[in-house]
Amino acid sequence: MSTPLHPTRRHTALPKAQILIEALPWLTRHNGATVVIKFGGNAMVDDELKAAFAQDVVFLRQAGLRPVVVHGGGPQISAQLERLGLESEFKAGLRVTTPETMDVVRMVLAGQVQRELVNLLNQHGPLAVGMTGEDAHIMAATKRYANVDGELVDIGRVGEIDSIETGAIRALLDDGRIPVISSIARSADEAGDGSDGTGVYNVNADTAAAALAAALGAETLMVLTDVEGLYADWPDSDEVISELTATELEKLLPDLASGMVPKMEGCLHAVRNGVRTARVLDGRVQHSILLEIFTDEGIGTMVVPDKREGEPTP
Description:
Elements: H1 7-30, E1 34-39, H2 47-62, E2 66-71, H3 74-83, E3 90-91, E4 94-95, H4 99-122, E5 128-132, E6 139-148, E7 151-164, H5 167-174, E8 178-182, E9 184-187, E10 200-202, H6 205-216, E11 220-225, E12 243-245, H7 246-252, H8 261-271, E13 277-282, H9 288-293, E14 301-304
Parallel strand pairs: 1-2, 1-11, 2-8, 5-8, 6-9, 11-13, 12-14
Antiparallel strand pairs: 3-4, 6-7, 9-10, 13-14
Helix pairs in contact: 3-4, 6-8
C-alpha cells in the first residue's frame, strides 16, 4: 500500500511542476531550432555566472535545441596585455590590434577563454567542441577601419566578416555537439598563415555571432551583456524596451551608447538576414537564457523582423 505524500512535500513540489508546464509550449516550439548565443560581459568573469551559463546551454541542448556559442574576451585580453607590458588602445569602440596584440588575442581567446568554457560545458557530458573562426575556414574577414569623427582610421588586425562556411559547425550540431567558436577569422584579402600576425583578424564577437546566426539560418540570436536590455530613453529612463522591429531599431541606432551599437547592429543584421528573433539579455542574471526562452514573460529586449501584412508575429 502506497504512502500518501506529506502535505509539505506536495506543496513544495507543485511550483516545480507549474514551471515545467509553463515551459512546455516553448519546448515544443523551439525543438530542433538552432540558437546562436554570444557569451560576454560579466558572465565571462564571474564564476557563478559562468557555471549558470554552462548549465543553461547544456539544458538547451538536452531540451532538443541546437546551441552554438560565440565568444570574445575583452577583459581577459586587456589583462594579459597589461601583464606583458603592452598597451590596450581603443578607437571608435574597437581594439587597436597590432601583430603583437593579435598574438595575445589568439592565445587568450583560443587558449584560455574557450578552453575554460568548453571544460565547464563538458562537466555535463562530452558535448562541447572548441574552434576558432580560422578552423575549417569557418570565418573569413576583410580589414576593417574605425570611423573617428568621420575619418577612417587604420586600427591594425581588426576585421569585418566577409563570408562564413558553416559545414563544420553543422556537422558538429548533427552529431549532438555544442560548437564553441572564438571570434578570430582568417583573412580574405591577404596572404599569411598567422604566424607573424598576418593572415588573421580580430573580429568583434557581437558581429561574428550575428553573421554566424544568419549563415546558419538560426531561429534566435541571443546576446549577453551587462545591462537589462535596450533602454527606451537612457539615461533619463531605466525603462527597458521589451520588443521592437528592425525598422524601429534602425531609427534608434544613431543615439545609442557606443557599447550597445555593435550588439544592436548585430541584432539588426540577424533579423534582416533570416533570423526570426534577436535578443539582448542581462548576463548578470543567473539563468537569463532560460528565463528568456522558456517563460511567458521573458526578460531583456527582443528584436523582430518588420512584419509584413498577413504574417504572424514571430
